[in-house]
Amino acid sequence: MSALNEIKERIGSVRSTLKITSAMKLVASSKLHKAEADIEAVRPYERTLEEILSVVESYRSDEEGYIKASDAPVAVVAFSSNSSLCGAFNSNVIHKVLDTCAECASVKVIPVGRKMAEAIRKTGLELENDDHGDIIGKPDYYKSRTLARELRKRFADGEFSKVLLVYNKYVSSSSQIPVVEQYLPYVTPTTASPERKPDSLSEDYIFEPNPVELAAQLVPYLLTMKFHAAVLDSAAAEHAARTIAMQTASENAERLLAELTLEYNKGRQEKITSEILDLESGEA
Hints:
Order of helices and strands: HEHEHHHEEH
Strand content: 5-15%
Helix content: 55-70%
Strand order of the largest sheet: 2-1-3-4
Radius of gyration: 28 Å
């Protein structure tokens, strides 16, 4: 009897867990749809800015275009989630950060997310105290802009020799890839030739204002957009990872529930059969 009661208690516990994982899956799936829409809305704008900037690349003279202090540490801006229950999402990007830091002579980690801050503190690497968890918890362009401006200023002041972004890039709901991107000094995907002259530019382009002013104004906008895109990518990847993790947990709970129910029914049947045999032997 005690064995059956124990199985019954386990069935109740698994059912409670199944309700929680199913609810978390629905919440994560809902957040994922919004995050997908946000990142897909940003990417075309980012690509267009990069295309325009690549045309006026030779006119750039901004502080983001060159290294101010080559002996300064490398800043690694590392993105993670603020909470767990999202599969290997955090462990994958943490390993990527550690591998990246191992390749640098001097490094300072700037965490964006509580899980990253907790993991880096255990390694002994130089770490900023603020985990910037509010940025990843509720992605907002103005929050991203504040940190992006701070990074640009510190780079321009020579505090960092380079700024790298390490985050999970959202590819699809089933694929999130840890990536490392150079944020500063910024280099356009297709760099224009330094010898390029205004009269050699394609006739398809009309510059207003002139290319020098255009380049100076575009770079800060693009850098802010790239940083915000990394935030949105990481957020979308987190929700996708959590959706899959909760789906897997729910499936495991359903399978365990079926096994426990079968075991309980077998035990109950054996108990009833034993009681019937006891009655028959007593009557005999």
